[in-house]
Design a protein that fits this description.
The longest helix is centred in the N-terminal third of the chain and has 27 residues. Helix content is about 80%, strand content about 0%. It is mainly alpha-helical and about 120 residues long. It has one domain: Four Helix Bundle (Hemerythrin (Met), subunit A) (Up-down Bundle), CATH 1.20.120. The chain has 6 helices and no strands. The protein starts with 6 loop residues before the first helix and ends in a 5-residue tail after the last helix. Helix 2 packs antiparallel against helix 3.
Length: about 120
């Protein structure tokens, strides 16, 4: 399927949506089109003068769950590393993975946009 998207997860998503391909496409569309706002919210939460760990936690949960559902396994794994660091109180450790998260997020979104013929 793609180096960044796991086909089995997309098939599972389709099954969870009762085989409704339009609903699956809308979910993927939302994942792709919300990527920039999610990554920006996360960056703001982690890099402001007084980091907002609670906001970062919420955003990372959102990224992780939606990434799992669309099969963006590298995005989920990177977000999990950030989340683990955040839970340990290591804001700097979490921030250290931001560049990688943005890279794999962009690649996953690009692949999904191509697979579902979405405009970005």
């Amino acid at each position: 399927m793609s180096a960044h998207i796991e086909a089995l997860a997309l098939r599972k998503l389709l099954a969870q949506m009762g085989g409704d391909q339009n609903m699956q496409r809308r979910f993927v569309h939302d994942f792709v089109h919300l990527w920039h706002s999610r990554s920006k919210r996360l960056a703001v939460a982690l890099t402001q003068r007084f980091p907002d760990a609670e906001e970062a936690h919420v955003v990372l949960l959102s990224i992780r769950s939606s990434s799992t559902m669309v099969g963006a396994v590298t995005v989920e794994a990177t977000a999990a590393m950030m989340h683990d660091a955040l839970r340990d109180g290591d804001i700097a450790g979490s921030v250290s993975h931001m560049t990688r998260l943005n890279e794999v997020g962009e690649l996953a979104c690009s692949d999904l946009a191509t697979m579902f013929a979405l405009q970005r």
